[in-house]
Write a structure and sequence with these properties.
about 20% helix; rod-shaped; 2 helices; single chain; 7-stranded mixed β-sheet
């Protein structure tokens, strides 16, 4: 009887110890030290980031009305172009239009007619994940 009592007490204590670890332990802390994240948005054609080279002026029209004029930059590798109201050197683009003609734009600038829904606004290049990962020249 004593032996049986000892086994029951030992089982209850063991059961309590094991289950208390699950009920009273805190959840594991999430560590960001070993997460793999991209360092930049890769250029789809060339190695590394898009290299945005100046390509002259920009004139963007909607329904025949000039929406903004500014600066054209084009990636030297994948040919993506950004026509912006403000030069990137000021830290923001203002109104801008992004497209990929698939060829080098003229050095004198680009005039294009677009839909108003295709024009975007940027108030800070640093706060825009895509624009901040471009190499601006």
């Amino acid at each position: 009887m004593k032996n049986r009592f000892k086994r029951v007490v030992c089982f209850v204590i063991s059961f309590f110890c094991v289950t208390s670890m699950f009920f009273f332990s805190s959840p594991p802390m999430k560590s960001h030290a070993f997460e793999i994240q991209p360092m930049y948005v890769a250029c789809p054609v060339g190695p590394g980031q898009c290299k945005m080279m100046p390509r002259g002026g920009a004139w963007v029209y909607v329904n025949g009305v000039l929406q903004f004029s500014g600066f054209t930059h084009q990636c030297s590798q994948c040919k993506m172009a950004i026509l912006a109201d403000i030069d990137h050197g000021f830290g923001y683009l203002g109104s801008y239009y992004q497209f990929n003609p698939g060829y080098d734009l003229g050095i004198a600038g680009t005039s294009i007619t677009v839909k108003s829904s295709d024009i975007y606004y940027n108030s800070s290049i640093a706060n825009d994940y895509f624009l901040s990962n471009l190499l601006w020249y």
